[in-house]
Amino acid sequence: MVLKSLTGNHAVALAVKMARVNVVAAYPITPQTTIVEKLAEYIDGGELDAVMIRVESEHSALAAAYGSALAGARAFTATSSHGLLYMYEWVNWVSRARVPLVMAVVTRTMGPPWNIWTDHSDYYEQRDTGWIQGFAMDAQEAFDMTLQAFKISEDPRVFLPAMVGLDAFILSHTSMPVEVPEQELVDEWLGARTQGFVIDGSEALIHGALSPPEYTEGFIEDVGKAMEEAVEVVREVDHSFGRTFGRSHGGLVELYKCSDAKYHIVLMGAWAGDAMEAVDALREQGYSIGVVRVRYTRPFPGEELYKALSSSKGVIVVERGVSFGSMGPVFLDLAGNMLKYSRKLPYMRNVIAGVGGVNVTYKDFEYIAKETINYLESGEEPSVIAWYHAR
Amino acid sequence: MSSIPILPRHMRNTVLPGHAACHGCPIPIGLKVVGAAFGDKVILVVPACCTSVVLGMHPGTAFNGSVVHVAFASAAAVASGISAGLSKRGVRDVQVIAWAGDGGTADIGMASLSGAVERNDDFIYVMYDNEAYMNTGIQRSSATPAGAWTTTTPLGKKEPKKDVAKILIAHGAPYVATASIAYPHDFYSKLKKAAGIRGFKFIYLHAPCPVGWRFDPSLTVNIAKLAVETGMVILYEYYDGGIRLSGPSRPLLDKSKRKPIAEYLKHQGRFRGINEGELRSLESYVDSSWEWVKKFMQ
Predict the structure, then answer these.
(1) Which of A215, A296, A347, A383 could bond to A252 as cystine, CB 3.0-4.6 Å?
(2) Contact at 8 Å (CB) between B54 and B23?
(3) pLDDT band per the 50, 70, 90 thresholds, residue B1
(4) Are B67 and A206 spatial neighbours (Cβ–Cβ below 8 Å)?
């Protein structure tokens, strides 16, 4: 194990290299570019024995990554925002085809107007596509989650593609010390690629042919079943990662100072670190509060979140994105999933903040938490959904 | 015709009985030639097109080789990926062929095709050209010739056909050829030649569609032949910087040897409404195609 100072993007690139991918297909878009630039350096410098397909669009990036994965190669691509939207047809295709591969999504606000800073709308819009979707908090987790993504994606119980989300700039371009394990240990832990089927001419296989509704329904239902299986696989993989490398992240969610907390902030991404700082400050002021950090949105950690939040006196879900005309996607998923376990839900509030890349600091989390708690303790309920404008 | 090669495989071992093509469809003819050339050692990458249907419905299939059905715009990109994956794994005994129609090539697939050519990715791309979106019900594509009726050009298409082979020659592709389902041996030799070249290979395959072109299904091969004999379709190979005319087109360099274009048009209902001016513009399109070919001939 060595410590290296890495940006979020370079941590992803290093993990991809250490996973010994065979094919990288990618197209440039800010702020994802430094991932593929680094991979190009690794490949051209002879540090990574892989083919780089420098495609002419994101649509082709995922199509080419898919083709190589179908042919038995461990494949990777990365994109952001408009690039992700441009490949959207393929995002759906790859998961329904049940072909394992990994994609990093450096989240960035969609235009118009043009904007390169982070919010989570691009990532949220993939939630119905059938991909495993994880979201990292820091560069170490971006590294670990990328390695774990290959393991989860290639698990025979899953065989679905996996997405690693990370915030534009505040994570993608910010350095921190990252523990980098020995290559031999990574090789041993990750193992050789497995996939449901390989199309390489060794036998005649037809994939994706016109199918009658009754067959098609079964294929689609199987994606859902694999996603259900993935819940346990994500837990297992994080666990075995911890045993091997001495570091795990809590599986589908991370709980921070939750054991005795009466109130909870629920969120995902880099700003969870700011929320944790706010919790430290709030606790010094006598507030009983913790952070529930959602690490995976697909499969959605319903069970974990129910356990963590069912007896909460107030849940504040803070999100960098909204489903227009409704509420934040994590809030909606949380409310729906809680109902699987109980008809009686705790007080839950959805705060939309940081959209368009507006910087949200620990001071803002402190304000949001205090406002909510003070309302509730005075016997009033604040609005269920609110936009918070950090300035 | 002493140069006709002996076909090493029986075509019917690859294209099986029971496919779902319309009567007189040119696609099984083309695929049988692919089967003759490569047997089951082929991976077809098929975007949305008639072939998606022709090959049959799950769980059956009429193709005894591997087929990867892909999203419309992506035949070239997926073929690039498969080719890269196979090369990384050291698999060399299977031929990757992107098999796409004119819509999936000249229209929606143009960008991914252009990208694959520029990168010189190692596979064969076959554009089978039935000159409109036939699978969705005969809508015009950029490869529909001027004057042709389609359901979206009820008065006839105004613009001339997009010549994709020409575009790919301009890309500097190592091998570009044109072929016709009426000349299976010629198509066969071109497939085999392409398979021996590393890098990107493009074969244009003219494929008359009885349903969309409004002709009797028994005439598919005759119509395809007439397209060549009138000079509408010029069969050639391009490599090492020059064009070589193929056997059936070679004598037609002499314009007087070409049959009148009207001979080709008269069997096709899609040209029924063509007027004198449109006929003239078709003729001048053919003349300019030949002039262009002559410039690059070796």
Answers:
(1) A296
(2) no
(3) very low
(4) yes
Task: Report strand pairing: A296-298 vs A132-135.
Answer: antiparallel
Report mean pLDDT in 10-residue bins for chain A, 391 residues: 96 98 98 98 98 98 98 98 98 98 98 97 98 98 98 98 98 98 98 98 96 96 98 98 96 97 98 98 98 98 97 98 97 97 96 97 97 95 93 75
pLDDT tens track for A151-181: 999 999 999 999 999 999 999 999 999 999 9
Is the predicted ipTM greater than 0.85, yes or no? yes
The Cα-based distances of A198 to A20, A243, A355, B36, B53 in angstroms read 18, 31, 42, 24, 23
Where do runs of H (alpha helix) occur along A246-286?
272-284
- Measured CA to CA, the distance from residue A174 to residue A138 in angstroms comes to 9
- Regarding predicted confidence, which is higher, B1 or B83? B83
> What pLDDT shows up at residue A391?
75
Nearest to A201 among B41, B63, B118 (CB): B41
Does domain B11-296 correspond to CATH entry 3.40.50.970? yes
The answer to whether the beta carbons of residues A195 and A72 sit under 8 Å apart is yes
CA-CA distance, A69 to A77, in Å (whole number)? Answer: 11
Q: Which residues 10-69 in chain B show a CB within 8 A of chain A?
A: 40-43, 45, 52-53, 55-59, 61, 63-69
Residue ranges of alpha helices (H) inside chain A are 8-18, 33-44, 58-70, 81-86, 88-96, 121-124, 139-153, 183-190, 213-245, 272-284, 302-309, 329-338, 362-377
Cα pseudo-dihedral A65, A69, A74, A75, rounded to 10: 10
Q: Tens digit of pLDDT for each residue in B104-117?
A: 999 999 999 999 99
Within an 8 Å CB–CB cutoff, is residue B111 touching chain A? yes
Contact A209 B55 (CB under 8 A): yes
Find chain B residues with C-beta within 8 A of A51's C-beta: 84, 87-88
Nearest to B100 by CA among B78, B85, B118: B78
Instruction: Give the rounded distance of the alpha carbon of A91 from its chain centre.
Output: 15
Q: Give me the half-sphere count of Cα atoms (radius 13 Å) on the Cβ side of residue B172.
A: 5
Helical axes A139-153 vs A8-18, angle rounded to 10°: 30
CA distance A317 to A12: 27
**Domain-wise residue ranges, chain A:** 2-245, 253-388
The two domains A2-245 and A253-388 share their CATH topology (first three levels equal) = yes
Which CATH number describes the domain made up of A2-245? Answer: 3.40.50.970
Contacts of A57 in chain B (CB under 8 A): 111-112, 115
pLDDT at B2 over 50: no
Using alpha carbons, select from A175, A162, A31 the residue that is nearest to residue A106.
A31
Classified as helix, coil or strand, A261 is coil
Q: Please choose, from the candidates B272, B271, B4, the residue with its C-alpha nearest in 3D space to the C-alpha of residue B131.
A: B271
CATH of domain A253-388: 3.40.50.920
DSSP label at residue A75: E
Contact B78 A64 (CB under 8 A): yes
Supply φ then ψ for residue A35, to 5 degrees.
-65, -50
DSSP codes of every residue in A169-224:
TTTTT-EEEEEE--HHHHHHHH-S---S---SSSS--EES----HHHHHHHHHHHH
Selection from B141, B147, B163 nearest residue B282 by Cα: B147
Judging contacts by C-beta atoms under 8 Å, the chain A residues touching residue B85 are 22-23, 67-73, 75, 200
Mention every residue, 6+ apart, whose C-beta is less than 8 A from residue B209: B25, B26, B50, B130, B131, B132, B134
Question: How many whole angstroms separate alpha carbon A125 and alpha carbon A379?
Answer: 36
